[in-house]
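Appendix B, example 12.
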Amino acid sequence: MPRTGALDLSKPPFRVPLGQDAAAVAEDFIACFKIVSALPHKVSTCIEAALEIAGLYPKDPLCVASQRIAGDLDAGVGAGGVNPYHNAQHFCEVVLSALYLSLLAGVTAREKAELLAAALVHDFHHDGSTNANVPFRLERLSAEAASPYFEAAGVPMDVQARIRAMIFSTEVSIGARFARECHLHFAASGPRPSLSGVPAPLALLADDARLALQAVIVGEADVLSSAGLTVQYGELQQEKLAEEWKKPLGADHKVRFLNQVFQDFTVGHFFSPNLRALKSAAQERADRERDAPPPR
């Protein structure tokens, strides 16, 4: 029996149900994530299921490379085993979130496979810290760690470049914003984004509407579990991140992230009602924390 038998492929995040609202879909996501957390080979199971839904030939080099990477992640290679947040569970959640957003966007099987590969490796070999004062340090680390797998499987160089661009789009302060601006330039006649301060891998997005769409999907998938599901799950994700960064992250931090950094979904606008609920809850909690008397 294939590993995917542990997952219900008839429900979100593997199917887009008709008439189901964002709150109900969020509950289906969380139920799936709970099952994933208990799986012995969770990354392999999730990428196998996602690629099956995507519909690309299993022996395609991109699928082969993704499955090899997933196998190594399950073996602990580059999986951030000691990281409370950036670990194998996070990789699985981002892969499955990217799958669902790709279904909402109606991208091709090939495009799904590319963005699923990017979602799989976007935090490959994450060291549990931040980029600090070195822009795109973690994204470069992940892209470089994944490159030998793609090369060994025979993934064409142009496809590797597309995946690298998507990985860089998960950097929230510059990458995700640039990807969104590129997508809106093509999809909504927005202004052409400036390339000033944009690293070379991301520049591809400025001339490729489909790649810009894929990049936005991967970037939004990276934060969906923190910003697009339930208030409780969003708070749980922040607690894990605080533990990883070894510093408290209060409601003010959540408010700043949701209002100033991420702001809203574009491709994943279906989840915007959940995001608004998260913003409201975070703001209420921030107000209570601000008004609370100082400890004696």
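The mean pLDDT is 95. The chain has 13 helices and no strands.
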